[in-house]
Design brief:
This protein has helices spanning 31-41, 56-66, 84-101, 116-129, 150-158, 170-173; strands at residues 7-14, 19-26, 72-78, 104-110, 137-141, 179-180. The protein is of the alpha/beta class.
Length: 199
């Protein structure tokens, strides 16, 4: 479904217990206020918000702010029987198809040099496959370079734990069933409760 205003997507992953690719979608007009809010949550001496390193109290405080952002979260999940690379490749392929369908115009992936080249190849291959080679620009950046990567990082940490460590946000963490990436097929939009979203 096409949006009135094209979307930007910020993506991170979780590998336990299943592989999860998390995309946070946001409209261009909301980018600056969202970045400003997230930067205000970074403590002195921190370069970024990284949920695995935060205390339970800090996670709850951060989530209190993140759930107020006008962001839609979409999840892509693959099982535990294959390598991390195989599961990431499947989820990323599915994500590209979904993003073309949703008229996402900019994709920002947290950079990991171990699969940076493969990520570029998959995105390019799938864009050509759906006949939209120029629709989606994509970037690989370090987490500290883009504050909005804190959103998929938070969701990726919370989702496998069902909200543990942040009880006030447990309803936000119990999101709809994510896209399954084991088999090809047209995606169906899933939403994260607590975010402003539109299918």
């Amino acid at each position: 479904m096409r949006c009135a205003v094209a979307l930007h997507s910020f993506v991170d992953e979780s590998k336990t217990p299943t592989y999860l690719l998390v995309a946070a979608l946001i409209r261009p007009g909301n980018l600056w206020p969202a970045r400003r809010l997230i930067r205000s949550l970074i403590l002195p001496g921190q370069r970024r918000i990284h949920f695995v390193n935060e205390s339970a109290r800090r996670r709850a405080q951060i989530l209190d702010h993140l759930v107020c952002l006008p962001i839609e979260v979409v999840l892509f999940e693959a099982g535990a029987k294959e390598s991390d690379k195989a599961r990431r490749d499947k989820c990323l392929s599915r994500l590209v198809h979904h993003h073309v369908d949703r008229d996402v115009r900019r994709l920002v992936l947290e950079r990991d040099d171990s699969h940076a080249q493969a990520d570029r190849q998959i995105v390019r291959r799938e864009l050509i496959a759906v006949g939209a080679p120029d629709q989606l620009s994509y970037e690989l950046v370090r987490a500290f370079e883009e504050p909005l990567l804190a959103v998929p990082d938070a969701v990726a940490w919370c989702w496998p734990r069902g909200g543990n460590g942040a009880p006030r946000q447990s309803s936000w963490c119990r999101m709809s069933t994510p896209h399954r990436c084991a088999k090809p097929g047209p995606p169906t939009v899933r939403r994260a409760a607590g975010f402003t979203s539109r299918s």
